[in-house]
Write a structure and sequence with these properties.
single chain, about 90 residues, mainly alpha
Length: about 90
């Protein structure tokens, strides 16, 4: 008699608990692939960011080299102009 009364009392709770557990299981099933997808995308993002930073650094080095070359070229032009000016003066 007591057991029957306890079973009647616990029956509604069991159903609610079972429903909640089922929802939790469904949420876990949905979360697992999402978590894997998120990890893969993070990994892909990291690779892309590393490649971007590498290319950006390479570009900066090339710009620096170009600037150095332009400065050196300008110096050579100036030296040539000074030399030509001296030659012109000596001819006059």
């Amino acid at each position: 008699m007591i057991w029957a009364a306890l079973e009647v009392l616990s029956d509604p709770l069991r159903k609610e608990v079972a429903i909640v557990r089922k929802k939790i299981d469904m949420a876990n099933r949905e979360l697992n692939p999402l978590g894997q997808s998120c990890q893969k995308k993070k990994k892909d993002y990291k690779k892309a960011l590393e490649a971007f930073n590498k290319k950006n650094k390479e570009k900066a080095q090339l710009v620096t080299t170009l600037m150095e070359m332009l400065i050196e070229s300008e110096k050579l032009r100036m030296n040539k102009l000074v030399e030509l000016s001296k030659n012109m003066e000596s001819l006059q």
